[in-house]
Specification:
It is a single chain. This protein is an alpha+beta fold. The protein folds into 2 domains: 110 residues, Nuclear Transport Factor 2, Chain: A (Roll), CATH 3.10.450; 221 residues, PPM-type phosphatase domain (Phosphatase 2c, domain 1, 4-Layer Sandwich). The chain contains 9 helices and 14 strands. Helix 1 packs antiparallel against helix 2. The termini are far apart.
């Protein structure tokens, strides 16, 4: 066998060793200075393409030099050169030129079209990330411009909203309606989904609630929800719906009438006790012809109500335990009547529960309605 044929055979053994991930064979075929970087590069490729297999398809040899045109196949299952796994089966072609002296590769140069594909995919991923960020900015803008700029100032009452969006914006909302005879409508809700679709549905729902409440100017929160449900049902995608708690406050008498469209139950604290405000009703937009049960309570001096969305109770700690409703109710019962802001207490408890490095999973909305302790009780 000629030297050229021996050198071509050695290059074929090299291709087989790379396909098998045989590091011992790499040490035998390359001089030490080349073997280590080759093995390092091979490890990177095989992590990204675990089923990698390559072969030489054309070889030209002259003296100590061998030119190898090669092709390899692999499934992209791991990160490679900043490119996230695609799960695709890919084929690459390239050219390697090797110098072989005394049965060892002493010099090697290779170029293959994986970089063309990488450049294309990286551009695509960057564009995808830019589009996602653009959508997030749009969703945040829709949501923030839809929420009220001012909080009603009512003598003897304190209304405190808190809103903290997650990175992937959800459909949380709250609002206040100015009604006749000094009454105020309060609403807290959540549209299903994330991003722009959820933001658009929440914005649409807020507008419907506002216009319906003011057009009816009714003492019936259930009637408001019923009419909004009829309109919303025909205007939102069939896979979406909105949970909503709507209350009407008469600040003079302390009366709070309310109806619930499938939303998390608010908590009332009164005389060192904490209870849920229950009222039956399906979420808005699910089906037409729905009615909503109405209830009414009287808030006296020192009483308060916490309205909220599920971003708080569904937060998880590192062991995937949920913050949960029992924990929230216990905290409201313990701290509801304190002068300190209930929102601050709840958030401190939340951050302690989830620990450092927590990534917020959903929007968090809290709204407290409190009757001042200094106001005399209604007989």
């Amino acid at each position: 066998m000629s030297v050229e044929e021996e050198n071509k055979a050695l290059c074929n053994r090299r291709a087989e060793a790379i396909s098998k991930g045989d590091f011992d064979a790499i040490d035998e075929l390359y001089v030490p200075d080349l073997a280590q970087p080759i093995k390092h590069r091979l490890a990177e490729i095989r992590r990204a393409f675990p089923d990698y297999h390559g072969t030489n398809i054309v070889q030209i040899a002259e003296g100590d030099w061998v030119a190898n045109r090669f092709v390899f196949h692999g499934t992209h299952l791991g990160e490679f050169e900043g490119l996230s796994p695609t799960g695709e089966r890919v084929t690459f072609e390239g050219l390697a030129i090797d110098k072989i002296v005394e049965g060892k590769i002493v010099d090697s140069w290779a170029d293959f079209d994986i970089y063309d594909l990488l450049d294309s995919r990286l551009v695509q991923e960057q564009r995808k990330r830019e589009l996602i960020e653009q959508e997030l900015r749009l969703a945040r803008s829709i949501q923030q411009t839809s929420l009220p700029n001012e909080v009603p100032a009512l003598e003897g009452w304190l209304i405190t909203p808190f809103y903290q969006p997650a990175r992937e914006v959800g459909g949380d909302f709250y609002d206040f309606h100015f009604l006749s005879e000094g009454r105020r409508g309060l609403v807290v809700g959540d549209a299903t989904g994330k991003g722009v679709p959820a933001a658009l549905v929440m914005s649409t729902t807020l507008g419907m609630l506002q216009s319906t409440a003011q057009a009816l100017d009714s003492f019936s929160p259930g009637e408001v929800l019923s009419q909004v449900n009829e309109t919303l049902f025909s205007r939102i995608p069939s896979n979406m719906f909105v949970t909503c708690f709507y209350a009407i406050l008469d600040p003079n008498s302390g009366s709070l009438s309310y109806a619930n469209a499938g939303h998390d139950l608010p908590y009332l604290w009164h005389s060192s006790e904490c209870e849920e405000l229950r009222a039956r009703g399906m979420p808005l937009g699910l089906m037409p012809g729905m009615s909503f049960e109405e209830k009414e309570i009287e808030l006296v001096a020192g009483d308060g109500v916490l309205f909220y969305t599920d971003g708080l109770v569904e937060a998880h700690d590192p062991q995937r335990e949920m913050f949960g409703f029992p924990r929230l109710q216990a905290l409201v019962s313990e701290h509801g009547e304190e002068e300190r802001s209930l929102e601050e207490t709840l958030l401190e408890e939340l951050y302690s529960f989830v620990g450092e490095g927590w990534e917020q999973e959903d929007d968090i909305t809290l709204l407290t309605l409190r009757r001042s302790p200094s106001r005399s009780r209604t007989s």
